[in-house]
């Protein structure tokens, strides 16, 4: 803490997160994470930044890139529609500031980039539903190991 010229103490940061980033991909665990993050954002009066990471178009040299890009864009549009429906169900009494962002790449790189660019104070993700992640590590583990933001993993 430092003193400003009026004699009162100035504290860097705030008493809660200003921006909460949540990764969404349409899976059940990502919807649970989004619901949890929305509750946090609403109570803390934070901005909820929902992030969908579009997979990089594989085999674009083989001509498969355009259909893959169209499919991932369609997934993003479906997620936004579902988010809007969920917020409408919350009613007018619930005030939630939210944004939807898409980033390209693998989930770790995309969410990391989003959290950095949006100046996230917290990152929320759903627990991995893939059995292989117990062996090679999940997105959540990689985000925690990056040690750049508080990370909450929602089961």
Computed over alpha carbons, the radius of gyration is 18 Å
Distance between the termini: 37 Å
Question: How many strands in all?
Answer: 7
Relative helix content: 40-55%
Any idea what the shape is? globular
The share of residues in extended strands comes to 15-25%
What's the helix-strand series? EEEHEHEHEHHE
- Secondary structure tally, helices: 5
Q: Structural class, please?
A: alpha/beta
What does this entry show, briefly?
The protein is an alpha/beta fold and 155 residues long. 43% of the residues lie in helices and 22% in strands. The strands form two sheets. The chain has a five-stranded parallel β-sheet, with helices on both faces. A two-stranded antiparallel sheet has the order 1-2.
Features:
globular, 155 residues, two-stranded antiparallel sheet, alpha/beta, 5-stranded parallel β-sheet
Describe what this molecule looks like in 3D:
This protein has helices spanning 28-44, 65-90, 107-117, 133-136, 139-146; strands spanning 2-3, 9-10, 19-23, 47-54, 97-104, 122-126, 151-154. The protein is of the alpha/beta class. A 5-stranded parallel beta sheet has the order 5-4-3-6-7, with helices on both faces. Strand 4, helix 2 (65-90) and strand 5 (97-104) form a beta-alpha-beta unit. The longest helix has 26 residues, at 65-90. The protein is globular and about 35 Å long. The model is unreliable at 58-62 (pLDDT under 50).
């Amino acid at each position: 803490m430092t003193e400003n010229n009026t004699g009162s103490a100035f504290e860097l940061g705030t008493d809660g997160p200003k921006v909460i980033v949540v990764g969404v991909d349409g899976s059940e665990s990502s919807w649970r994470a989004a619901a949890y993050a929305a509750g946090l954002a609403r109570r803390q009066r934070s901005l909820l930044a929902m992030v969908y990471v579009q997979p990089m178009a594989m085999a674009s040299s083989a001509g498969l890139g355009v259909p893959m890009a169209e499919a991932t864009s369609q997934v993003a549009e479906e997620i936004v529609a579902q988010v809007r429906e969920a917020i409408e169900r919350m009613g007018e009494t619930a005030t939630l500031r939210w944004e939807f962002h898409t980033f390209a790449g693998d989930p770790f790189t995309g969410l990391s980039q989003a959290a950095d660019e949006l100046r996230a104070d917290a990152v929320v993700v759903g627990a991995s539903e893939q059995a292989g992640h117990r062996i090679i590590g999940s997105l959540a583990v990689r985000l925690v190991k990056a040690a750049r933001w508080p990370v909450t993993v929602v089961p």
